[in-house]
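hiii, so i know i said id send this last week but things got crazy w the move. better late than never?? heres the sequnce for the chain we talked about at the cafe, plus the structure i predicted for it. fair warning i was half asleep when i ran it
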Amino acid sequence: MFKPEVLSPAGDFECLQSAVRFGADAVFLAGKQFGMRTASANFDLDELKKACDYAHKNSVKIHLTCNTLPRGYELAGLPVFLENAALAGVDAFIIADVGVMELAKKYAPDVALHVSTQAGVTNHLTANTLYNMGASRVVLARELTLDEISDMRAKVPKELEIECFVHGAMCVSFSGRCLISSYMTGRDANRGDCAQPCRWKYHLFEENREGQFFPVEENEQGTFLYNSRDLCMIEHIPELIKAGISSFKIEGRAKSSYYVAVTTNAYRHAVDEFMKNPDGFVLPDWIKEETEKISHREYNTGFYFGSEPGQVTDNGGYIRHYDVVAFCESSDGLTANITQRNKFLVGDTLDILPPGGIPFNTKCLKLINESGEEVDSAPHAMEKLTMNTDSKIPAGSVIRKKK
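okay and structure toks below
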């Protein structure tokens, strides 16, 4: 049975470090051009080289998104972009446009070609055609069921890898091909600049009654007709693996390093636990609980098991039960050197997520600030503190507090 890759997102170098530290096999990220997440910091050429060096040193691959649908006037910049990315050391390009794919074969022939979900691959005929054109992997449309994926796996070459999203935000439109943002804000989702108007509140106005609106809603907050739930397949690892999926992709290049750490750690442990004992696998409770410790919309399983309610119609907000209060920079016994992110107090019970490990609780017994003064709380973001606890906190750990 093939062990799938855990593929994590990175919008900046801190997120990349979280992905690597918490167990990713590969990381997908973008350069400053041709990527689908302009809201992220992304990586310039020097940063991309640094990212590749860091990842490769830790036996992690880098997949570079080149998945916008470029206009004609942008094409002149593509050859140099592709050549420079290859020189930086990227392992694969994620591409949506067949013209860009041809350029990549010419200007970066040693870099693997992965076809983006934006290409909308839904059948084995298309997958085989792309394989014959040089693709080593297809990122399938998110709208396929597990049965359809399993059928495709049986009808494509075993060398062709299949990548699927297993966690994160879902787009209301087919595989992300959305025009709402372009129409309403002039920001093109297909060029990485989505304003997410599908998450906004909407009301209905009657044209002859100026200023009078009629909410089409289930409560007073507004209408969320487009508001997709988040995908979470953590409880269905066996089904995903048995369907023949080669890579489990976690959405979130615009999200925090904390999100990357938690989701990567959860899917890393889930996959590893399954591979140890496929026949007797039971998902440990703590892994499922971890997916509830990040900000998320209501979860569902997307289209994997057929259609189920895809939209949240009564709210547009996130569910968040935990706050990140600090990161552990180093430790010596029961003393940890931390960088504060949110306020917490001496005496608080803290939830620790160690790199590659299982979460545990510890108690904050003492806090000392940079001036050597003992303090009762940590109220200043990014303050450096020394903390005494009743359990050792490994360096690189995320420190959380339940809300």
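btw The mean pLDDT is 89. thought thatd interest u
miss u guys!!
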